[in-house]
Amino acid sequence: MFTPVSFHIGGAEVLLRISPGEFTTAGGEVFADTGPWLADPIAGVARGALAVALDDVTGYAIAAGVPADRWPVSLGIRVDFLADPSTCPGRLSVTGEVVGRDSRGGTTRGAVTDDDGEVLAIAVQRSHLIQSTGLSAAVAAGSLVDADAPIRSQLGLVDAEDAPAGAVALAMPATPLAANGMGNVHGGMLIAVSELAAMSAIDARCEYRTTSIDIAYVRPCDAAAPTTFTAEPQHVGRSLAVVRVVAANPSGKPSSIATVILQRR
């Protein structure tokens, strides 16, 4: 018996205006609205925010074909960004398909397309199956106080004072707007904030765009606790920057480790 797929609207989906389409064991589709919340004072445009819908569509595509007592958890996602999403009102189609699956997990790929049919981003996700614990009924989706504000401010991101030498750290307070249905920080949101931390680390001043983010998820990140994103530039050249970003709860143990590639415009 396969798991019936019921799309959960958590805080991350509320923040990024994501709504479900249909899913089969082969793949599916979700939709995301665009607007001024995708603008960012340092990154220019928050391309990484597209990862929330990409994580959803590629994750639920695997979930649609697993046994009822199992649930997929992401091991890692790579997203390549081709163009900026609009910061004006619009609607994005985000599609996902299963590349392969076995008894241990699966691999899926996804794409984001805008109203004009332009591909904005593509992704590959690797998942493994765990015993299903279900969604947490205690996790509220949250609500938007300033709906048009950049996601940086809606998430309450601030510079952390205790960053290591040569690094910049962004602190995110506990917030339901970053959470998935299990009460953890959404995997796509870890990508989105890793991008913003990387941009802050090189003082991008809207002069760079993210070309790719490759992230590994090493342990759950509790959305009910603060999260710190520590960004360390590995290379900053005339046209290209490479930044390593580690997200961690107060224990200091990494939840995700991302490599963010930035290119000067």
Automatic annotation (TrEMBL):
Keyword check for Hydrolase: yes
InterPro entries: ACOT13, HotDog_dom_sf, TesB_ACOT8-like_N
Alphabetical keyword list: Hydrolase
One function term, GO molecular function aspect: fatty acyl-CoA hydrolase activity
Organism superkingdom: Bacteria
Acyl-CoA thioesterase-like N-terminal HotDog domain: residues covered: 181-260
Entry annotated with the keyword Hydrolase: yes
Name of the protein described by the UniProt record: Acyl-CoA thioesterase-like N-terminal HotDog domain-containing protein
Source species: Gordonia soli NBRC 108243
Lineage summary: Bacteria, Bacillati, Actinomycetota, Actinomycetes, Mycobacteriales
